[in-house]
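Workshop exercise sheet. Pairs work together: one partner reads the sequence aloud, the other fills in the structure field after running the prediction. Swap roles for the next sheet.
Pair: D.N. / O.F.
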Amino acid sequence: MNTEWRYAWSKPTVLGDLKTHIQDFYVEEQLGFEPDDKGEFCYVFIEKQGVNTDFLAKRLAEITGIAPNKVTYSGVKDRHACTRQWFCLHVLNQEADFSAIQDAFREPESVRVIAQLRHSKKLRTGAHLSNRFVIRLREVVGDLDELEGRLNLIKQGGVPNYYGPQRFGINGNNLHHGKGFVLKGRQSRRKLPKTESFWLSAIRSWCFNEALSDQVENGMWSRLCDGDIAQFQHKHEQFRVKEIGALMHLNVMRGEISPVLPLISEGWEAGTGPLREAAIKSSLTESMDLVNALIAFDLSRDSRLARLVPMNMAWELLRDNEGSAQLIVEFSLPKGCFATSVLREMIDFTDKSAEKHHESIDRQ
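Structure field:
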């Protein structure tokens, strides 16, 4: 299955290394609300390095003596990064003690508690507002003036809101397994196990990326058509496009409003206008067996912005005298969006953490 999707601003020629060190990729979850410091839920803000989110949640349950299903989190964060995120523990009137948490991990794994507060409501999946990234790319070589131009272009014009390679698994394994699983059809009405849910999500995301890639080529990704569903970049408010006046054009040019693409489900066609519906069908013509099989899974209606404009984007280029440089870039993205989809438009990067992962597999 294709995973080479088109670039909005042409493929970058500048090269660089990503995640040479864990600290080179920093992510901080932003809830969008303040815990009210009362109630039966304990919210704990944790910095972790080299630790899987789900694994940490289970360790928190062990340490505090509660059932694993009593620990929740809003989003999964990268293991090969320095990340800060919130966990929620249903501890009723108990005082949770996290003093021994670091003892549950070994170098290079690292975990420390940043803050601990009470809240009256449970933290549910997808409850956070956004994620803030600070990323350092090393061994940057090439035309740095061209790189500066790209950075300004991305800041103003955004990037295609592709699902990142993480969604598709190592070497695209989620796509390989997902295609077979989806085409076989749903075998029962039971709740899908986590692995099968990942496969299903990967196939749905692949359909989105395929359609978006074609719209990047013809320019539809960043413009509105009559009948489209559009969305403000930094709000969840959506609306049907009935008339495209001067003010609407201006908001689109500023990156404040963009079209959305519906995700495949029963009746997905109602989630867009006639021109974009035809474009999506054309993109997926050769995969209609997969599309129809997806629809049979009775998925909920959903959509996703076609264009992603990073918030509060800033950067610094650190040049040296040996022909290479370092790029430090920071920005915030709405939940569910991928930093790698931003990075791929600015630099042709090599993920050094992926190389280390393959080396560790080879040694096993």
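Discussion prompt: The chain has nine helices and 16 strands. What would you look at next?
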